[in-house]
């Protein structure tokens, strides 16, 4: 299960960003933040990466505390610029 916490304009996402968790799901929070903290994400797959890119990258927010697995997937798919600091 994914959990979303908003505090001081930082959206923290915890849980597994994998197919089973994100398929057909829209995020519960899409406003009032400028950073997304991914430190609490336990695992990723390509569906989780696509979910982040689809829902959050267009908002222009900064992703912080990226797990190494996300960095590797972003590199593989040529999406690294979306996850670099502003």
UniProtKB/TrEMBL annotation:
Query: Under what name is this protein listed?
Result: STAS domain-containing protein
């Amino acid at each position: 299960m994914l959990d979303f916490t908003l505090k001081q304009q930082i959206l923290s996402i915890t849980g597994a960003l994998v197919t089973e968790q994100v398929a057909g799901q829209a995020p519960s929070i899409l406003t009032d933040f400028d950073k997304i903290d991914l430190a609490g994400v336990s695992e990723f797959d390509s569906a989780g990466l696509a979910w982040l890119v689809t829902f959050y990258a267009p908002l222009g927010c900064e992703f912080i505390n990226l797990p190494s697995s996300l960095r590797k997937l972003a590199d593989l798919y040529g999406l690294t610029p979306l996850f670099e600091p502003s």
